[in-house]
Specification:
Elements (H helix, E strand, L loop, with lengths): L2 H22 L3 H5 L2 E8 L4 E2 L2 H13 L7 E13 L2 E12 L2 E14 L2 E13 L3
Length: about 130
């Protein structure tokens, strides 16, 4: 792998770390710092813009009563495919929300501009996991 590809992967990995940290903290501000302002989140249930993160944050904080001990989220980066200033990342996620556990597979589409890498869209699906 050449040095340019390594540098791109490292920059993408740093962006993903910030995105993952924001999710672990249920911190919409940190999450949104990794997304382009016009990004879209798409699932079989609906399509939303970035305003949806505040809705998600409120929903999960209410479900756990503000107790982060009832919240756990883990990310596994399955693949990163980079071409010039475009990338697609597959991430498998495991959630625990109080007693409920579920998985999610995310496909994140990234673009790099003069400011660096940002997430432009997320396509995902949820699925139950055994407790």
């Amino acid at each position: 792998m050449n040095m340019v590809k390594v540098e791109k992967r490292e920059a993408i990995s740093k962006l993903l770390e910030r995105y993952f940290e924001g999710n672990k903290e249920i911190n919409a501000e940190k999450i949104l710092s990794t997304w382009h302002k016009d990004a879209k989140i798409i699932s079989t249930e609906r399509i939303i813009g970035m305003e949806g993160w505040v809705e998600f944050e409120d929903h999960y904080k209410k479900r756990i009563g503000g107790d982060l001990g009832k919240w756990d989220i883990n990310f596994t980066v399955v693949s990163i495919d980079v071409f010039k200033t475009c990338a697609i990342v597959r991430v498998d996620v495991e959630y625990r929300v109080d007693q409920d556990v579920f998985g999610e597979t995310q496909f994140l589409n990234l673009l790099k501009d003069e400011k660096g890498w940002l997430i432009y869209s997320k396509i995902f699906t949820f699925y139950p996991l055994p407790k």
